[in-house]
Amino acid sequence: MPKNADSSVKEITPRSQDFSRWYLDIVRRAELADYSPVKGCMVIRPYGYAIWELLQQALDSRIKATGHVNAYFPLFIPNSLLMKEAEHVEGFAPQVAYVTHGGGEELEEKLVVRPTSEAIIGTMYANWVQSWRDLPILINQWANVVRWEKKTYPFLRTTEFLWQEGHTAHETEDEAEEETLKILDLYADVCEAELAMPVVKGRKSDSEKFAGALRTYSIEALMGDGRALQAGTSHNLGQNFAKAFEITFQGRDKSVQYVWGTSWGVTTRLVGGMIMVHGDDSGLVLPPNVAPYQVVIVPIGRENWRETVLPKAKAVQDQLRAAGIRVTLDERDERPGWKFAEWELRGVPLRLEIGPKDIEKQAVLVARRDTREKQSFAMDGLVPRLRQLLADVQQGLLERARRFRDDHTHRTSSYDEFKQIMEGRPGFVIAPWCGQADCEARIKAETQATIRNMPLGGRAPSGSCVRCDAPATVEAWFAKAY
Ligand SMILES: [Zn+2]
User: Fold this and answer.
1) What is the pTM for the complete model shown?
2) What is the distance in A from the centroid of ligand 1 to the CA of 434?
3) Cis omega (within 30 of 0) on the bond before 136?
4) Ligand 1 centroid to residue 447 C-alpha, Å
5) Local confidence band at 283 (pLDDT 50, 70, 90 cut-offs)
6) Among the listed ranges 75-89, 236-250, 385-399, which one has the minimum average pLDDT value?
7) How far is the CA of 463 from the centre of ligand 1 (A)?
């Protein structure tokens, strides 16, 4: 791939000037990801991967705490298996990559590079399940998947991406629905508690549901430019895949029944969402829970700072590290101002400045990345105060993002107003909808807005649909989306 013009980008495009350019500049300059020689595939660089790992740990521990276990299934799926569930095939066909040759020979049956694993996992479950005693199966997989994309965007949409995919099988429909919603709550909790990214939980319209699912639920977040991002999905598969893959069991009444399935996933896209929710014109702003470094120590001083300041800075680093705070010490031979800008770009939540005067006073200067507030902390009792401050930053970011989301959420039943909002400063629009797919398609064609989801426990609408004269059946959240 030719060297992209922005590989040497020094400045970050202002967010208000060009949001998309701003995002790409941050991804490159903060060394989160890079373009690769493979079209549509990105390289996740160590700093970006460290964020993903922290998020992955937060997800994995919650997935296990709710009774799930991890396993691993093959990357390749025989084409005939994918073909078994009709809607599933139709939904994924345009995005599927095939392997046709191996070991120098043409394969008898071409292999699909997994776009998702229902087909291969369903095939295995059919062998593993005999009786109701074998249920439920609660398995999660951490993996990469490939969906051929025409237009890609780092983290948000790439041909190959990383994710987790949960696949469960249950005895009853109620259990499957309970599982689907339990995971939706789990995803919302991770987004809000770890990424400080508020989300709206709800059900997808039929046109937006997963290929082959009975019902799809999603969490939707609002990005800094007023566009929505689908941040995770959880599907109640009903018995569709069980019927296609013959996943049957002998029930408590000895009758042979099909299992009820679910599947659910979140991806590296969450990293992109987090950037777009919190970042500013100076670069990334990382929530402490997913920050590879929660604290950076910058020694300040004249020429001899290595003798006068560095030993104390190292002692503070050791102290914080021992306390489990992720910390780095920048002892490069650069001006402090240059270092400040670098770490602001990388979004480190707290910066500790230590100079000769601070050492005299037995104190450090602490600067917050999110509010840019500075305060002096005594060395004595530093760890608990920093812990509290990190918690404050985490909470402050969530509240700020919530305010932004609420300020950009409008309720209307007027189609003129709906269109005006979508043309101007967009965001979520909550509006009554008739539930008809053709009406939904017209709204999309006319405004570019799609139904993000229909919140659980949302208000029952009165009157007619925002666009047509049919009675409204549901209240939907619309937005322009990534
Ligand atoms: Zn309508």
Assistant:
1) 0.95
2) 4
3) yes
4) 14
5) very high
6) 75-89
7) 11
